[in-house]
Design a protein that fits this description.
This protein has a single domain (3-87), classed as Arc Repressor Mutant, subunit A, CATH 1.10.10.10. It contains 4 helices and 2 strands. The protein has helices at 3-15, 18-25, 29-43, 59-87, and strands at residues 48-51, 54-57. The chain has a two-stranded antiparallel sheet. Helix 2 (18-25) crosses helix 3. GO terms for molecular function: DNA-binding transcription factor activity; sequence-specific DNA binding.
Length: 103
Protein backbone atom coordinates (compact mmCIF):
# COMPACT_ATOMS: atom_id res chain seq x y z
CA UNK A 1 0.00 0.00 0.00
CA UNK A 2 1.42 3.35 -1.02
CA UNK A 3 1.22 6.39 1.23
CA UNK A 4 -1.29 8.02 -1.14
CA UNK A 5 -3.47 4.91 -0.93
CA UNK A 6 -3.39 5.13 2.86
CA UNK A 7 -4.34 8.80 2.70
CA UNK A 8 -7.35 8.13 0.47
CA UNK A 9 -8.41 5.05 2.44
CA UNK A 10 -8.22 7.01 5.70
CA UNK A 11 -10.22 9.87 4.20
CA UNK A 12 -12.95 7.52 2.97
CA UNK A 13 -13.18 5.90 6.39
CA UNK A 14 -13.33 9.22 8.25
CA UNK A 15 -15.50 11.12 5.75
CA UNK A 16 -17.94 8.27 5.18
CA UNK A 17 -18.01 8.47 1.39
CA UNK A 18 -15.70 8.53 -1.57
CA UNK A 19 -17.03 11.86 -2.84
CA UNK A 20 -16.54 13.59 0.53
CA UNK A 21 -13.07 12.05 0.86
CA UNK A 22 -12.13 13.32 -2.61
CA UNK A 23 -13.40 16.77 -1.72
CA UNK A 24 -11.42 16.77 1.55
CA UNK A 25 -8.28 15.79 -0.35
CA UNK A 26 -8.92 18.27 -3.18
CA UNK A 27 -8.95 15.57 -5.85
CA UNK A 28 -11.63 14.39 -8.24
CA UNK A 29 -13.93 11.56 -7.26
CA UNK A 30 -12.78 9.44 -10.24
CA UNK A 31 -9.14 9.92 -9.17
CA UNK A 32 -9.98 8.83 -5.62
CA UNK A 33 -11.90 5.82 -6.93
CA UNK A 34 -9.01 4.81 -9.18
CA UNK A 35 -6.52 5.10 -6.31
CA UNK A 36 -8.77 3.07 -4.02
CA UNK A 37 -9.04 0.31 -6.63
CA UNK A 38 -5.26 0.40 -7.04
CA UNK A 39 -4.85 -0.02 -3.28
CA UNK A 40 -7.19 -3.00 -3.32
CA UNK A 41 -5.22 -4.57 -6.18
CA UNK A 42 -1.93 -4.11 -4.33
CA UNK A 43 -3.36 -5.47 -1.09
CA UNK A 44 -5.06 -8.41 -2.75
CA UNK A 45 -8.40 -7.90 -1.04
CA UNK A 46 -11.41 -5.62 -1.16
CA UNK A 47 -11.56 -2.70 1.26
CA UNK A 48 -15.17 -1.73 0.65
CA UNK A 49 -18.32 -3.46 -0.48
CA UNK A 50 -20.36 -1.31 -2.81
CA UNK A 51 -24.00 -1.61 -1.72
CA UNK A 52 -26.75 0.62 -3.19
CA UNK A 53 -24.28 3.37 -3.99
CA UNK A 54 -22.60 3.28 -0.58
CA UNK A 55 -19.17 2.03 0.40
CA UNK A 56 -19.30 -0.32 3.36
CA UNK A 57 -15.93 -1.21 4.91
CA UNK A 58 -14.98 -4.87 4.93
CA UNK A 59 -13.62 -6.52 8.08
CA UNK A 60 -10.14 -6.15 6.56
CA UNK A 61 -10.71 -2.42 6.11
CA UNK A 62 -11.81 -2.05 9.71
CA UNK A 63 -8.66 -3.85 10.88
CA UNK A 64 -6.46 -1.67 8.65
CA UNK A 65 -8.24 1.46 9.83
CA UNK A 66 -7.31 0.73 13.44
CA UNK A 67 -3.64 0.75 12.44
CA UNK A 68 -4.14 3.79 10.20
CA UNK A 69 -5.55 5.71 13.16
CA UNK A 70 -2.40 4.88 15.11
CA UNK A 71 -0.23 6.04 12.21
CA UNK A 72 -2.14 9.32 11.94
CA UNK A 73 -1.80 9.85 15.71
CA UNK A 74 1.96 9.33 15.37
CA UNK A 75 2.00 11.91 12.55
CA UNK A 76 0.15 14.39 14.77
CA UNK A 77 2.72 13.78 17.51
CA UNK A 78 5.54 14.32 15.02
CA UNK A 79 4.01 17.64 13.90
CA UNK A 80 3.68 18.72 17.53
CA UNK A 81 7.30 17.81 18.18
CA UNK A 82 8.42 19.78 15.12
CA UNK A 83 6.38 22.79 16.26
CA UNK A 84 7.95 22.61 19.71
CA UNK A 85 11.44 22.36 18.23
CA UNK A 86 10.76 25.36 16.00
CA UNK A 87 9.82 27.39 19.07
CA UNK A 88 12.71 26.17 21.26
CA UNK A 89 15.43 24.15 19.51
CA UNK A 90 17.11 23.55 22.89
CA UNK A 91 14.06 21.73 24.21
CA UNK A 92 14.71 18.30 25.62
CA UNK A 93 13.23 15.55 23.50
CA UNK A 94 11.99 12.32 25.00
CA UNK A 95 10.68 9.69 22.63
CA UNK A 96 8.76 6.64 23.68
CA UNK A 97 7.54 3.73 21.63
CA UNK A 98 5.33 0.86 22.50
CA UNK A 99 4.95 -2.35 20.59
CA UNK A 100 1.97 -4.61 20.65
CA UNK A 101 2.80 -8.27 21.16
CA UNK A 102 2.55 -10.10 17.87
CA UNK A 103 2.22 -6.86 15.87
Amino acid sequence: MKLRHLEIFYAVMTCGSLSRAAEALNISQPAASKALKSAEMRLGFTLFQRVRGKLLPTSEAITLFEKAQSIYQDLDNLRLLADNLARDPRAKITLGWSAKPGG
